[in-house]
Amino acid sequence: MEEKILYAALAGLLHDVGKAVQRSRPDPRFPPQDARDEKQPVHAAWSFDFIEKTPVPQPFRAPAIHGAYHHRPEYSPAADRSLSYLVALADKLSAGERIEQEKTDVAPVPQMISIFDSVSVDSKAPRSLHYLPLSPLKLEKASLFPTDKRMEKPAQAYEKLVAELRAAASRSDLTDPESYLENLLSAFQRATWCIPSAYYYDKPDISLYDHSRMTAALAVCLTDFSTEDVQTLNQAVFNDWADKPQAGDADLLNKPAALLVGGDISGVQNFIYTISSKGAARTLRGRSFYLQLLTEAVLRYVLNQLGLPYTNVIYSGGGHFYLLAPLSAASRLPGIRRQITEKLIRHHGTALYLALGYDEIPFAGFKAENFSGQWGKMHAALSTVKRQRYTELGDDLYSLVFQPKEHGGNREDTCAVCGEERTGTRLLDPEDVDEAGTENRICPVCASFENQIGKKLAGAQFVILGLGEPKESPARTALDTLAEFGLSVHFAKDASDQVDLLGDDTHPKRAIIWALDDPDKWIQTPGIPSARFLRYTINHVPEGLSFNELSEKAEGIERLGVLRMDADDMGKLFQTGFQRDQKSFGTLSRISTLSFQISLYFEGWVKNLVESEDYKKLIYAVYAGGDDLFLIAPWHIVPDLALRIEADLNQFSGGNPAIHASAGISFIHGKYPVYQAADDAAKALEKAKRTGEKNAVTFLDTPWKWDDFAKLNQYKDQLVKIVNEKGKGGLDGPQSLLTLLRWLADTEEAARNQRKKKKPERVWGPWMWKGEYQLKRMLERAEKDKNVELKQALSQVHQQVSTELYENLFQWGKAARWAQILVREKTDGRT
Prior knowledge:
By secondary structure, the protein is α+β, with helices and mostly antiparallel strands. Helix 2 (about 15-25) crosses helix 3 (about 40-55), helix 13 (about 280-305) crosses helix 17 and helix 21 runs antiparallel to helix 22. The chain has 28 helices and 18 strands.
């Protein structure tokens, strides 16, 4: 990577670090006592102080100081002020709106307002404010979730956050500049994700982390321009942002500034789920995590080929990534796309495909009211590539994609898990032969998902990625595919594990350490420079249990529950969520902050829930990240888990009605094909999303709004307590109560259908007085038996049903069905 690229990235990343230092001081109004008198803002003086006293090691110190002059680059003492002007322009483009002239109506407080307080899908008035805790990134509710309370002593919290930045910035043991830069980026993520970039003149909903890294990315892109052009453009942008346009500015601002690049790996759903039930539990988690590794490998390959640092990544996850690139990258991206396509075909045939699309963003496109439109153009370009896949192969399309294979039809080479035919298959188990005498075999690739990834991922605290030169490899295992992109993978259970990267035959030059959870101590990579990142990932699965054995852990019927869930209208939220009165304020930094917060919930907090003792480690997480998830567990756990995830999402977003998710829950037996289970749950999810404004869950083949589902859960709990045996915490009540409620619901539904009335409308009939009679008889029997507790419980159900004039019979009928399958004896396998 060129020095000018690294220096631009570092200068952009550190340009506003003084804001954090300044707010940690007893009186943040004043600069350091020994500050230079160079007509710089106070926070810039603290940036100089941070860089000089930390100290930032050579050769990064001078570029960092140059970047700190971004407010007044003309006062920089450097002979060459180009980097100062570069960061000045990048800073304006990243902010997209900030000219410090007028105060906002937000009371000055050095605490970040949740980005969710700024988004809406209906342009409603601003909502009440919720403040993020000033806490390092950590999977604890007290650290992640916003509240309506301000901190009493924010300076003390800032001091702790600044200490983490100092520790990362002063590391002089790193011989590799790229690793130093990425460690600093990681420290910014952990320490400044909750720090507002600006708070006195601006609404403090953009994190210093996102503003700084996007400034770094843009500074890198602007290295394509001459110093003279950067100075001219910087003034033109300033004029436009300050509403003081000058002649010729408009032409300058309409010139392209950078490329917004999107990558999307197609075929992910089929790749993960289109496997048989045979050996599915063994390979599914490894197969899913492999897709995360492949996304990272492809992303790193693109960055490496373009000579770009990781600061240029806007978002990566769920088979997608977005990044900023210099205009000069446009000539290289088609060739990179073809290289990636050829590698994926060699290893996965046409099962996986990377769509790589991009669009030029003019300087004016970074302005708040314009950027969301640029985001939409990039996605349109990406969609075009997806519709025209493999056109990059040109005349080689037929030979690489359509030419028939020279072998085929060999049963002994056919994998029982994925159905593909590959040489080197072996028996799935040493004595694995089905009733028909057919040997069930597993191919080397599926076996690698189990042995080289899945088994090692379970319980691992760290994943170590070796970054080296791409190595052309035969398509034998998943690790061979990753090696094609220059990535090797190692797993470590804790910081004491020894990982020999020097002995790796991929010869990595440096390493990336992913901590899958909050680490007390980081693992070391002797002899190899490394960068440390938090990469929250669910990695605990029910150990040693097949899906069939996992279903035996269910209460009531032996079934698994499959949960598919995703956030609603995310595309719309990114496109129009920041619009007010037909004007958008969706800057690059805001969109970056929003994407980070959403992925933090689905990757981080959902991990925290799934791996908690509440669910006794019985949840098999196929995937959780981006804005969606796919989980498998004993069926009785799943409804409660779905309710928890939705309730916590509501709290995480400060109760914003625009932020919600929909879910689909289906039941399967342990030997049910995974692809069919995934399809069933996907259909259930789609059914939920067809319900009004979405924000619903499909359960027992019925879509419910979340409030109604919570009420259904409450009804179910009441009924289970009544009919369950005393030895199981119940009241030994009449099972006929469940039969009665189901009959009432079915009878009303039949009457409604016969009268062709819609569900919201009332229908009346004799079932009402019959139900009243039967419920009162049950009460009388409980009174006769002197069972006071049972009588009270039955009386409560009677009051709820009759007080509502039998209006909620449908809901009570479904609650009774739920209760029946929950208390049913395991020997009864019917559904």
